[in-house]
Amino acid sequence: MNSRGIQDLPQEIFHIILDYLGNNKSILRSCSLVCRSWLQVSRPRLFAIVSLYACEQRLVGFLYFLGTHPDITSHVRSLML
């Protein structure tokens, strides 16, 4: 018996699933915790649009987060302040 995990599925399957689920941040956060493969597919969708409305503390926190996770910057397509 061949035991394969969810991480062994082709990336295209993850993209199809996430396309079906939409851009719900809560769902995307949950999907990013399934396995590394899902994290890689979820991150660009999670950080495509970042909203930091009128709160300096959020902006400072987000900048700190980007400093510790520089790979995220390539996913941000829109930043709303």
Which features would summarize this protein structure in a list?
81 residues, mainly alpha, two-stranded parallel ribbon, 4 helices, 2 strands, 7% strand
Question: How would you explain this protein's 3D organization?
Answer:
Strand 1, helix 4 and strand 2 (78-80) form a beta-alpha-beta unit. The N and C termini lie far apart (53 Å). Helix 1 packs across helix 3 and helix 2 (25-32) packs antiparallel against helix 3 (36-46). The mean pLDDT is 86. The protein has a two-stranded parallel ribbon with strand order 1-2. With 81 residues, the chain is mainly alpha-helical. It has helices at residues 11-21, 25-32, 36-46, 56-68, and strands at 49-51, 78-80.
Please render the helix and strand layout as text.
Layout: H1 11-21, H2 25-32, H3 36-46, E1 49-51, H4 56-68, E2 78-80
Parallel strand pairs: 1-2
Helix content: 40-55%
The biggest beta sheet reads: 2 strands, parallel
Please give the order of strands in the largest beta sheet. 1-2
Shape: elongated
User: Taking all residues together, what is the mean pLDDT?
Assistant: 86
Q: How many helices in DSSP terms?
A: 4
As a percent range, the share of strand residues is 5-15%
Q: State the end-to-end distance.
A: 53 Å
So what's the oligomer here? single chain
- Content-based structural category: mainly alpha
Topology as H/E string?
HHHEHE
Radius of gyration: 15 Å
- Could you tell me the number of beta strands? 2
Unreliable segments (pLDDT under 50, ≥5 consecutive)? none
